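Minutes, project huddle
Topic: does the predicted pose make sense with adenosine-5'-diphosphate bound?
PN asked that the exact inputs be recorded in the minutes so nobody has to dig through chat later. Recorded below.
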Amino acid sequence: MNTDVVRLTEVRKTYGGRRNSVIALDGVTIGFPRATFTAVMGPSGSGKSTFLHCAAGLDRPSSGSVLLAEQELSTLSEVDLTKLRRERVGFVFQAFNLMPAFSVQDNVTLPLRLAGKRADRDAVERVLTQVGLSDRRRHLPGELSGGQQQRVAIARALITRPAVLFADEPTGALDTRTAREVLNLLRASVDQAGQTIVMVTHDPVAASYADRVVFLADGRLVGELRNPTAEAVAERMTHLGAWADEQAGVR
Ligand code: ADP
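Predicted holo structure (tokens), as shared on screen:
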């Protein structure tokens, strides 16, 4: 059976006070089954970042529930939430956020050391091979290309064998060819290692590597595409943009 690794139920998030409150998420319900790759898209301001932060336990919803790796996040203390994030969640961002003075290998094993665990040599070898960088383990990030640096960041995110990997515009800083390499790597981690991935992107080509694209507008889920092509995603985004403009009274 395909169980959800992450499940949001009626999640709402408002910012600001009573007078100037902004509804960033407005009753979002969605599940992310194990070993699936989902892209989250929507116009600027539609709630993508807020969604990612709430789903990953980086921020707490105003109401509703988030279940991650069988834990209800609202019941966890800050300490337990931090522990859950560190041990069960992987993050990849647009900026690679590597430690410049650390070697590739030391960057990759950092999450284990922060958790007070020993870096198992086989596990490090496996993850470095997975991202195609086992011959660069002693290099510093500054000696690598952008795509290679992002692959180090992915290896660092995978070393803890997270239940879910959240990616926020992971190819935003890369050229087309390098972006494709990184997306193929993410895709392979789903197909070959059963990784679960949730990726926020504004790029229809990046989204086409996912099994499913879900669309946000005004803090609500307004549709999804399964087995998406870049063309179908771009087409849907054009309509969403027009729809969002209408809601905002732009036209
Ligand atoms: P996206 O990532 O799709 O651009 P966000 O999640 O960043 O959307 O924002 C959704 C809405 O919430 C926007 O109207 C934004 O202005 C508002 N918002 C986001 N973060 C904050 C914050 N810290 N304080 C106030 N409003 C916020």
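Observations noted during the meeting:
- Strands lie at 4-15, 22-33, 37-41, 63-68, 71-72, 89-93, 164-168, 197-200, 212-217, 220-226.
- The pocket of adenosine-5'-diphosphate is lined by residues 15-16, 22, 24, 42, 44-50 (CB under 6 Å).
No decisions taken; revisit at the next huddle.
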